[in-house]
Each structure stands twice: as C-alpha cells, then as structure tokens.
Amino acid sequence: MLPMTKLLDFEKIVIQCHDNPDADAIASGFALHAFLQSKGKEASFVYGGRNQVTKPNLLEMIRALSIPLRPAAAAPENDALVLVDCQYGAGNVTKIPARTVFVFDHHQQEKSDFTYGVILPYLGSCSTLIWDGLRREGFDFAARGDVATALYYGLYTDTANLAEIGHPLDKDMRDNLRFDQTILKKLKNSILSFPELRVAGTALTDYQADTGLRFAVFKSAPCDPNILGFISDLALQVSEIDLCVVYNETPAGLKLSVRACVREIMASECAEFITAGVGSGGGHREKAGGFISQTALTALGAEPHVFLEQRLRDYLTNYDLVEAANHNLDIDAMPKYIKKKIPVLFVPSLAVFPKGTPMILRTLEGDADIAAADDIVVVVGILGEAYPMKIDKFERSYRPLPLNEKPAYAYNYSPTVRNKITGESLEFLALAAPCLARGEVCVRAARLTRHTKVFTAWNAEGYMSGKPGDYIAVRCDDHNDVYIIREDVFAQTYEPG
Ligand SMILES: [Mn+2]
User: Sheet containing 478-485: which strands, arranged edge to edge?
Assistant: First the structure.
C-alpha cells in the first residue's frame, strides 16, 4: 500500500472524482481532503463533466457534511492530481492535465497512466481503500465524524446497502467507523427519486428468462447502484428462477447485482465467474455484486445482454459436483503428493484477549465465532487463512520454532480478531510465533479440467469452488476429506510424494 504521506510532497493538490460522481467517489475525495487539511495542506476537490450533481441524497450529503466539492474549472493548475474511484484517462473522467497523477480506485485496472497508484478491485468501495490508508497514518476518525459518516455511506451505497460486502477489510470499516446516525438515516432514506422508482419498476418488466436453467437477466436504466440490489432482491422471489442478474450500463461499464437461492449456486462465486477477465465481482453466498469494464466488453464486441446470458449459461452448465461424504472419485488413479514443510504461525487465544472473551476471527475466507480459552490456539497459514485448534491437537501436529525463524508472509488481508464485547479489533500476527508440521500430510490429487464444486464435510451450506488448473485433493488417511487447492497454492505447498 502506497503511504498516503506521499501526497504531502506536493503543494498544489487537486482531488478529482469521476464525472457524475457517486457517494463513494465523493466520500473518498472528502476523506483525502480532510487528511491533507490535518497536515496543513489546502487541496481543492473537484469533478468534471457536463452534469452537475442533482441527486437528492448526494446534495444532502454534500450539504450536511459540508463537503467542499466543486465543478472543475476548465483546467485547474496543479502539482499533483489525485483521482478517486476512477482512473486517469478512463471514459468516465474528464481529463485534467497533470505532471504527477495519483490513482486510488477499486475498479478493475484499465489504465496505467499514473505516477502513483493503488488499485484494489477486490474491495467493495474506494472509501474502504482510503479509510485503510488513512488509519495507517493515524488519522483521527473519532474527531472527524463527518468523514466517518461519508466513508460509511460510500461503502453503503456501493455495496447495495452493505448486502454485497465480501472482503474482510470492508467489514472492518463497517464495524469500526462511528458515523452520525441522524445524517445517515436521512441519507439512507433519500436514495430514490420518483423517476428512479419508475426505473426499478420498468427494469422488473425488462428481462430475459431461461426457465430451463432457472435464471433471468434484467436490464435497468442508469440508476444508483443500490437500486440494482433492490431490483434483484425482488426479482429473485419469482418462483421460476434460482439465480438472477440485474445490470445497468454506465460510461465506465456494467454494474451488476447478483442473487442466488439454491445450495449449488453461491452468488459470490457466480459474480466472480461472469466478471472473470473483464472486471471484478464478489460478495456473499446469496448476494453479490460486480463490475464489467466497457473497454473489455467493446474489445470482445459483445452486447451486454448476450454476453451476460452466455456467461450465465456457461456457469450453469459446465461444472461437476462432488459430495465429499459420498463421491466416486477414482482415488487410485490420483497421484500422491505430500505437503512441503513450510513454517506457519500460531497464537494462543489467551495472548490476544482475556479468558472467556467472545471474539470474531476474521479472515479472507469469512468470519468465525470463537472464544478465548486456555486450550484454543489459532493457526495461520501462508495465505492468511486462520483456524482455531484445540491445544492437544496442535501439539500433536506442530512443533514450535525459534522466534527468529518467524516467516514474513505478505497477505492481502492480515487476519484480525474482534472483541465482541468492546468492539476492539486487533491484527494479531505481531503476537504470533512460528511452528512447523511434525509429520507428513499426504494427499491424492488431480488437476481439474472442469469447474468443480466440492461440498465438504465441515461446511453443510456452502461449497469450495475450483477452476480448471486447480487441484482436487483427497486426504490419504480419510477418503471423505475432499477439498480444492488453488493452482498457485498447490505449486507452492505440495510436492510429489
Ligand atoms: Mn466506488
């Protein structure tokens, strides 16, 4: 992550939103503006394009939080231009000449025309990216309730009222910001205008349904992203379908909302599938969102509707299902591999919070409830995956290593624990010590040639999803312990046995 203090090297700083700015872009720019102000810098905050902000919730946001956003003068002079929620040279941003360009964005990278950039497409909002950067600089969000409220609302609107949040960092921001309840309530309840209500109604009548495969695609006129979520929530209730996608077209690309309601389809996985290579997508089991860039779509020469329907058909027709408890994999034909001995990390739960504290263990794979106890240890693997383990099992399986052998793994999210009583959240890896597996872990594994969903023994509701190139593995000592290992993880952590 680029340190936000890099901005302080410049004097005349212009922060710019995309044209037709939304709440996320406005919040992101406002927070950066406040940060610079706290460091004694006066930046200007602008947006370009032909249209002025007219949406009632955005006008109210700007008014209630005194956000200094202005339409840009033709070419504001600057030493540094800072783009938020968009990229320099992209179709949805009026180009302002600049020598030094910063880009902070959470859309798929389309442009590399910048001096410094942080582009994290896995985040639900650009607000999250800015929040994480500023807290690392010690920015005082408690003293700036206006900034906290703006950022929270940015995430709220970009994730269909928080329903499509996928990444743990988005959850951290949601849980940590103390926002102004009164202002937020007002903003939440002024999102729709009567014309937009009509947009939602019309979208519900403009669909292509495939009742054989039980899915439908709805097209909406341009509208606020969270209205897409509202439309898809309603659409999924139609009894003939188990999966729906609602989309609209903006100059930057397609914004999608995905809903699913059967065990074999996780909305988050489906959103990732349909946006693979052309955008980004993710969320929860039942609700997810995504974005497809216009540039990628144009390059494919595909009509949005045709493209989405084709991807959905591919998604629904090209996969294998494996029930771990009852499968017919030809285990003898699968080569044997053993897990390489790579140091991992462990933390006794009592090192983090006092005995009995209920806490949430948050990782890239989701949230888990645990409690601090004498006999519970948390083990963290090389990808930041973390799981609680009883101490006796831990001692049988691992041997501690000297502290100076502690590996420094780089995760895109370091696991955290959150005290459920006080709300305090800790990145606990600083407290971790290294350890090494004692014995050999043997698996039989085969490279996947088709998309595969594995229902494991330990998760009755969701499934593990594998792509061609990933591996399906079966524990040598337990043929009902079947799971998917990602291609890159397999290469790093297994060797022929
Ligand atoms: Mn955004």
Answer: 478-485, 471-475, 442-447, 336-339, 494-496
Tell me the CA–centroid distance for residue 25 and ligand 1, in Å. Answer: 6
CATH of the domain at 205: 3.10.310.30
Report how far ligand 1's centroid is from the alpha carbon of 196 (Å).
Answer: 20
Claim to verify: residue 417 and residue 449 sit in the same structural domain: no
Residue numbers of the domain that contains 381: 343-421
Query: In this structure, are 70 and 176 located in the same domain?
Result: yes
What tens-digit pLDDT sequence spans the chain (497 residues)?
A: 788 999 999 999 999 999 989 999 999 999 999 999 999 998 999 999 888 998 889 999 999 999 999 999 878 899 999 999 999 998 889 999 999 999 999 988 888 899 999 999 899 999 999 999 999 999 999 999 999 999 999 999 999 899 889 899 999 999 999 999 999 999 998 878 888 889 999 999 989 999 999 999 999 998 877 789 989 999 999 999 999 999 999 888 999 999 999 999 999 999 999 999 999 888 888 999 999 999 899 998 989 999 999 999 999 998 999 998 889 999 999 999 998 888 999 999 999 999 999 999 998 878 888 999 999 999 998 888 888 899 998 999 899 999 999 998 888 899 999 999 998 888 888 899 999 988 888 999 999 999 999 998 766 667 889 999 999 999 998 898 899 999 988 998 899 98
Q: Ligand 1 centroid to 418 CA: how many Å?
A: 26
The number of CA neighbours under 13 Å toward the Cβ of 287 is 17
Taking the C-alpha atoms of residue 108 and residue 90, their distance in angstroms, rounded to an integer, is 12
Ligand 1 midpoint to CA 350 (Å)? 39
Phi, psi of 86 (to 5 degrees): -170, 175
Q: How far is the CA of 22 from the centre of ligand 1 (A)?
A: 7
Q: How many independent structural domains does the chain possess?
A: 4
Question: Does one domain contain both 276 and 412?
Answer: no
Question: Same structural domain for residues 31 and 76?
Answer: yes
Distance 152 CA to ligand 1 centre (A): 12
Reading the block at residue 484, the tokens are: 């998917």
From the CA of 125, how far away is ligand 1's center (Å)? 5
In a domain, 434, yes or no: no
Q: Are residues 12 and 148 in the same domain?
A: yes
For residue 186, the CA-to-ligand 1 centroid distance in Å is 21
How remote is the CA of residue 224 from the centroid of ligand 1, in Å?
11
Name the packing angle between helices 145-158 and 126-136 (round to 10°). 150
- Separation of 310 CA from ligand 1 center, angstroms? 26
CATH code of residue 170: 3.90.1640.10
Sign of the dihedral defined by the CA atoms of residues 247, 253, 255, 256, in that order: positive
In the numeric block, which tokens belong to residue 50?
């032909």
Residue 103 CA to ligand 1 center (angstroms) comes to: 13
Residue 85 Cα, ligand 1 centroid: separation in angstroms?
5
CA 27 to ligand 1 center in whole angstroms: 10
Check whether residue 279 and residue 329 sit in a common domain: no
| 117 occurs within a structural domain | yes
pTM > 0.70: yes
